[in-house]
């Protein structure tokens, strides 16, 4: 990610993929951590932590869409290259742009998915 391009408005993408998430996090736990650091509803409008239903753990990555592309900067500074504190993990957070960009496109991706038949706790969160 070219943070300088984001800073000056040359890169206005809003959707990120956060990787190397310890698999003990639940979607609500991770969202709470992000919210505690100022990255909750109002700043983000889409959040999804995919779950492996066989072992009932997350798959190690999440998707987030920011309302304003500039809010990616403090999020990136806070998490990129850092260890996750909650589970005493050796995993180091990596952040890249998501292949699918924007809240609408992400919602469209999941609208006909079997995932939408699962319990609410496993579905993408929309704010």
UniProtKB/TrEMBL annotation:
InterPro entries: Mei2-like_Rrm_C, Nucleotide-bd_a/b_plait_sf, RBD_domain_sf, RRM_dom. Residues 14-112 form the RRM domain. GO terms for molecular function: RNA binding. Pfam families: RRM_2. Gene3D superfamilies: 3.30.70.330. PROSITE patterns: RRM. Keywords: RNA-binding. The keyword Thylakoid does not apply. This is RRM domain-containing protein.
């Amino acid at each position: 990610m070219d943070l300088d391009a984001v800073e000056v408005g040359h890169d206005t993408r809003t959707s990120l993929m956060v990787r190397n998430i310890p698999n003990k996090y639940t979607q609500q736990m991770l969202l709470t951590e992000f919210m505690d650091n100022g990255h909750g509803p109002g700043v983000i409008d889409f959040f999804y932590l995919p779950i492996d239903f066989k072992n009932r753990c997350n798959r190690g990555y999440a998707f987030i869409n920011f309302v304003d592309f500039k809010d990616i900067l403090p999020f990136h500074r806070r998490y990129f290259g850092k260890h996750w504190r909650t589970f005493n993990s050796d995993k180091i957070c990596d952040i890249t742009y998501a292949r699918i960009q924007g809240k609408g496109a992400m919602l469209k991706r999941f609208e006909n998915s079997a995932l939408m038949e699962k319990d609410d706790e496993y579905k993408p969160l929309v704010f």
